[in-house]
TrEMBL record:
Record organism: Leucobacter weissii
Segments traversing the membrane: none
Sequence ranges assigned to domain Rad50/SbcC-type AAA in this UniProt record: 18-243
InterPro entries xref list: P-loop_NTPase (IPR027417), Rad50/SbcC_AAA (IPR038729)
Domain of life where this protein originates: Bacteria
Record-given protein name: AAA family ATPase
GO biological process, one term: double-strand break repair
One GO MF term: ATP hydrolysis activity
């Protein structure tokens, strides 16, 4: 497989001397104090390889172009040139170290394009045998053409990334995690994902997830604004408990009063019902008494008429024996009353009989009237008593209601307060629900990552882990044999902890081991790899567990010596190291040791020449 070798980095401009640094094809160590341009070299290399912007530093003023020299696998030397302001990249089929005076052989776009080969990404990928490779980007087996930018995080590691908690090879962006795992799989196996068949989808699930998450986050933001001045859930629950206790007390009191009122209302209703019944009975008795009075008068009138008839008959002789005064019948032909004494007529008997009958009826009626009058009097007394009881019951009910109304008002206020607290607790529950929804959406992304992880060969991961462990062991890293790369965690596990759980010094050393081990793994198996590794500050912050704070900030000598010895003896590609500390032993004949001093009077000041204000006055410079 083809490899790329960096030969030099040069800045050119008008009226400024070129700033250039050469790189050994094997090991280059650039060391010296901070702010001498070491990290800027890493940034400039990344910029020429397609990064969006270049770091701004004062020493850069006056320089307009960056030249990055390469040696290709064929032995051909080329130079990539790019303006410090960005834009396209010029390709020169020669080793150019001064401001170019001729047009470039080709002009390449800085951004990768699957539709065109005229970009720096496709040019470099073609040189290392990875052009047109496809990597999975989601769980539906949709693929994305590999870009050289996908490889740079695996071979060019800045100081920030070296010490970051994010796992080596991952950017920390969940959207790109599936693709980044697939890129690692490509390097470990040499096989891309072009054979995958995309699962048909009615719409872009990735965009849908993003839209769903955006909607949920907007709703969550609205809820959080409503809860801005609201107490925390724990405090609200405490308030709710106290309110419920107070409400129970008020409810019990109101319940007792309500029960008393209910009893009084039942008594009141019973009294009103009795009063109504009594009044109805009294009304009926009064009407009956009136009818009886009329009947009494009728009986008395009938008796008066009968008495008048009897008197008139006596006077007219209607009651004596002889010829009938009515029909003229002789006594022999008259039907006389057998019970009479023979001195009266049957007419007289009839009058007497009718009088007795009517008198009997009148006597019975008078007894009934007397009984009815007695009952009416009882009813009148009972009605008066019942009415007094009704009025007393109404007064008692009024007093209870007057006592209940303030309690009801307090209870309404307590219930309203409880309702508000329950509403706010409900809003907190909604917040929790929305946060769970966001986590579930994120879990869908994790499911995509899990699909990509399943493609990592266990054998490849085991051999890669062994390569990391072997390299750390050569560096005298504690318990190096137990260090491994975990396929599920996608991170290095050291001391039974993920790399992210360690301090930045350990994270930097483990990241350097990951990057170098990955490159050597590819070299040993003739798998595609860019061929070079650039590491910024892999050792400066590392301190082993047995080194006390009094030992100072310098990394341990044993680790420093072992690290530089290992990259010279056991690494087959090109490695460029930026460090603040100096190598303790001279480097080998095929290594390049570049020291920046940050002093204009001793050695090389830095990558860029010193600014005029940093230079001593003429005649005061001290010979190196």
């Amino acid at each position: 497989m083809g490899r790329l070798t960096l030969s030099h980095l040069t800045f050119t401009g008008t009226n400024v001397e070129p700033a250039s640094v050469d790189f050994s094809p094997h090991v280059t160590v650039i060391h010296g104090p901070s702010d001498t341009g070491k990290s800027f070299i890493v940034d400039a290399i990344d910029f020429v390889l397609g990064a969006k912007e270049l770091k701004e530093i004062p020493e850069r003023e006056g320089y307009s172009r960056i030249l990055l020299g390469f040696e290709l696998a064929t032995g051909e030397r080329v130079t990539l040139a790019r303006s410090v302001d960005g834009g396209s990249i010029s390709l020169y089929r020669a080793d150019v170290r001064v401001e170019p005076s001729t047009p470039p052989d080709e002009t390449l776009a800085a951004k990768h394009s699957a539709a065109s080969t005229k970009n720096v990404s496709r040019f470099l990928l073609n040189e290392v045998g990875l052009d047109e490779k496809q990597v999975r980007k989601n769980a539906r087996n949709e693929t994305h053409m590999l870009s050289f930018r996908d490889l740079t995080r695996l071979c060019l590691v800045g100081e920030t990334e070296m010490q970051a908690e994010e796992a080596p090879g991952l950017s920390g962006n969940p959207v790109n995690k599936t693709k980044e795992v697939s890129v690692l799989k490509l390097l470990l196996s040499g096989e891309d994902d072009s054979a995958l068949t995309a699962v048909p989808s009615a719409q872009d699930q990735k965009r849908l997830r993003g839209a769903r998450q955006e909607v949920v986050e907007r709703m969550l933001s609205q809820l959080e604004s409503q809860l801005q001045d609201v107490a925390e859930p724990a405090e609200l629950k405490t308030q709710l408990g106290k309110l419920n206790h107070t409400i129970d007390q008020h409810s019990a009191m109101i319940g007792s009063l309500t029960e008393q009122r209910g009893q009084l209302l039942r008594q009141h209703n019973e009294l009103q019902s009795a009063d109504s019944t009594q009044r109805s009975e009294y009304s009926d008795a009064a009407a009956l008494r009136q009818r009886f009075t009329l009947l009494q008068k009728q009986y008395e009138s009938d008796l008066a008429r009968l008495e008048m008839i009897a008197e008139a008959g006596s006077l007219l002789g209607y009651f004596r024996s002889g010829t009938c005064v009515f029909c003229g019948a002789e006594p022999a032909n008259q039907h006389l009353n057998l019970d009479c004494e023979g001195d009266t007529t049957s007419f007289g008997v009839s009058v007497e009989s009718e009088t007795q009958k009517t008198q009997g009826l009148l006597d019975d009626l008078l007894v009934t009237i007397e009984s009815l009058d007695a009952r009416a009097e009882v009813l009148r007394a009972s009605i008066r008593t019942t009415r007094r009881d009704v009025v007393a019951a109404q007064k008692s009910i009024g007093k209870l209601e007057a006592k209940m109304n303030p309690e009801k008002g307090n209870l309404r206020e307590l219930l309203a307060k409880r309702s508000e607290i329950e509403k706010n607790l409900g809003l907190y529950e909604q917040v929790k629900t929305f946060e769970d929804m966001i986590r579930r959406i994120a879990d869908e992304t994790e499911a995509e990552v899990a699909t990509a992880v399943a493609g990592l060969s266990l054998t490849a991961v085991r051999e890669f882990s062994a390569e990391i462990s072997k390299r750390l062991e050569k560096w005298d890293y504690p318990s190096a044999t137990s260090v491994r790369y975990d396929r599920n965690e996608l991170d290095i596990i050291a001391g039974d902890q993920r790399r992210s759980a360690h301090g930045k010094g350990v994270r930097a050393v483990l990241h350097a081991a990951f990057t170098l081990a990955l490159a050597q793994y590819c070299f040993d198996r003739d798998l595609p790899h860019p061929g070079f590794v650039v590491l910024d500050s892999p050792l400066v912050t590392y301190r082993p567990p047995d080194q006390s704070a009094e030992a100072g900030d310098e990394p341990p000598e044993g680790v420093v010596r072992a690290f530089y010895r290992d990259i010279q003896d056991s690494f087959d590609g090109q490695v460029i190291v930026m460090e603040n500390t100096d190598p303790l032993d001279p480097l080998g004949h095929d290594a390049l040791d570049i020291r920046f001093t940050k002093r204009v009077d001793v050695g090389r000041y830095g990558f860029m020449p010193a600014l005029l204000e940093d230079r001593p006055a003429d005649g005061l410079a001290i010979e190196a």
